[in-house]
């Protein structure tokens, strides 16, 4: 069963990259207020660099691990939630951002899958995404 779920998640990730990909290459914009780049010796946790986190939980508030969450504007950026149900994104949220699950995990249900999105409010830094355990 775990192999099937892993295969489904892998296929969903490939689908998301193909369906939501963008051939344009983004140009880096200089920022006078930027911090120096981290060296190989610097230890930076995901929480320190993440600007937006999504926590996927069931109706009882229990974390749902290994769920593919996608953050979208014109392009979707899928990220796999960790063992605590947390997906992190290094992006500041505007009212143009929206989220959904790439695929709903087996044994759960939600209406926000694929292109059925939850629209986010400008400036939020975290969101709790509740899905229903069947």
Give a structural overview.
- The structure is a single chain.
- The chain is an alpha+beta fold and 134 residues long.
- The protein has one domain (2-21, 47-133): Carboxypeptidase-like, regulatory domain (Immunoglobulin-like, Sandwich), CATH 2.60.40.1120.
- The protein is 17% helix and 26% strand.
- The protein has two helices and nine strands.
- It has helices at residues 2-20, 46-49, and strands at residues 52-57, 68-72, 76-80, 86-89, 98-101, 108-109, 118-119, 126-130, 132-133.
- The strands form three sheets. The chain has a four-stranded antiparallel sheet, covered by helices on one side. A three-stranded mixed sheet has the order 4-1-8, with no helix packed on it. A two-stranded antiparallel sheet has the order 6-9.
- A hairpin with a 3-residue loop joins strand 2 and strand 3.
- Mean pLDDT is 76; it is low at 14-47.
